[in-house]
Amino acid sequence: MVGGRWILGRGMVASRDSNGKAVNLIGVNTDITERKQMEEHVRHLAFYDALTQLPNRRMFFDRLSQAMAASKRSLRYGAVMLLDLDNFKPVNDQHGHLVGDLLLSEAAGRLSGCVREVDTVARFGGDEFVVLLSSLDVEKAQSTAQAQMIAEKIRIVLSAPFVLNTQGQAQTDLMHHCSVSIGIVLFLNTNASQEDILKWADRAMYQAKNDGGNTIRIAETNQIPATLRPTMI
Asked: Is 49 labeled as catalytic in the residue annotation?
């Protein structure tokens, strides 16, 4: 890279002296910045959500795989939270998808501000987000408390009114009150698949919704098959 631009250099020996030493070289430099930018754009689309710029499902599962492996080595718990906005649909129905997209983008920003640098916030689509908490505590009780603390922070932050700037014949600010249902599952040393972990978090999230929303539920260990439960060490 030269001066912020990608340069591809190609060259060859044009002639040599009697001892075989190169005396003339010819070459060409090509600016490939646009190609590199396009490659990066394609890579970004493969791993990030186009609307919120959060990691997408593909990147999330890759990071979850890494977190599960790291958890086995460090003997520290990890956790997955599945989040669903409780009253998102009325925004789309009453004000259109553009306003709904504004709400999702704002929610994504708030979520990202609630977690640590080692954690991951991803969007799976619609109004469904997922949070991966890495490197919690070696004790289950402490890890559960840490996960609950972060989940409660998220619940409070997403409950604050959203002021959405809408563009139409007249620019207006729309205020929307939202809430979130959160399901949590902890993992340590488990034979479960990534899909299993997401399924348990999903069950806990729907339990939160069934209990009225705007709340947090943790997957009960006795609801998980014995062969897939985290191994207590």
From this structure: no
